[in-house]
Amino acid sequence: MHALSDPVRVAIFAEIAGASCPQTCSNFVNIAEKSIPKSTLSQHFKALREAGLIRGERHGVEMRNVSRCPEIDKRFPGLIAAIVKAHKIQQAEEGRASNRRKREAGGRKSRRK
Amino acid sequence: MHALSDPVRVAIFAEIAGASCPQTCSNFVNIAEKSIPKSTLSQHFKALREAGLIRGERHGVEMRNVSRCPEIDKRFPGLIAAIVKAHKIQQAEEGRASNRRKREAGGRKSRRK
DNA sequence: TTCATTAGTTCTGTTTTTATGAACTATTAA
DNA sequence: TTAATAGTTCATAAAAACAGAACTAATGAA
Predict the structure, then answer these.
(1) What is the per-residue burial (b if ≥16 Cβ within 10 Å, else e) of B46-84?
(2) Which residues of A55-74 are buried (b: 16+ CB within 10 A; e: fewer)?
(3) Best residue in B44, B83, B84, B88 to probe A by mutation, most A CBs within 10 Å?
(4) Which residues of chain A neighbour B92 with C-beta distances below 8 Å?
(5) The pTM is what?
(6) pLDDT (tens digit, 9 = 90+) per residue, A47-63?
(7) Residue A10: partners with Cβ closer than 8 Å, 6 or more residues away
(8) Could B82 and A86 be called an inter-chain contact, meaning their C-beta atoms sit closer than 8 Å?
(9) In terms of CA atoms, which chain B residue is nearest residue A73?
């Protein structure tokens, strides 16, 4: 139903909307903790495109994706900013959580002295 | 994995976080286009509770749910505001879309004169 | 042209998540 | 006790996401 009903797509969209240059599909292979196969990414990009949230332009062998912010912001003023903001904050916390996990995983052996 | 990875839960959480008084499970039966069974809602509330996003307090026969905004905002400053804002904007549009659908559904027979 | 390479797509089966009816628990009130 | 209301748990069905394999598209050699 709606393209932003999946957290991976929200992450992708927030990234594209917040970026200053077009993003390719491959840029997102390592966006999560473990790498996402390109077939999976391609499906997400397709959903975002079909929802009219991003647009893809082929440049040679690669597909550059840009968000359709101007159009979207016209209809839902502030929505993109709100999504990007919420996502950035959550991302920051995920980073901290991830570091914590790494520290604790190490701690099983070395129990910080 | 994370409690806000589902749009229904985001809607519920945004509603609770934005409300000025505790919300019961039953308040959400008609939050979507078609009514959501209470077993489904109960599962979502459980997920939100286990994630520490809301807290339920029993008052007589009903369970009053409040968001844990103060704690959350301390860790993710601005996150709740961002979520609530994004959700409100999307909701407003869904309302417009819904009205449009209703108009057009009527239009199949009566083709506005 | 043909072959190789890179980027992405489509197909298809598997796994994960969500949705939901039915049976159950908890609280209150008659 | 019985009834009524609010919510939970359980089992399973339905829907969505994931991912490997085979495919298409553009480019650049040889």
Answers:
(1) ebbbeeebbebeeeeeebbbebbbeebeeebeebbbbbb
(2) ebeeeeeebbbebbbeebee
(3) B83
(4) 76
(5) 0.87
(6) 999 999 999 999 999 99
(7) A4, A83, A87
(8) yes
(9) B89
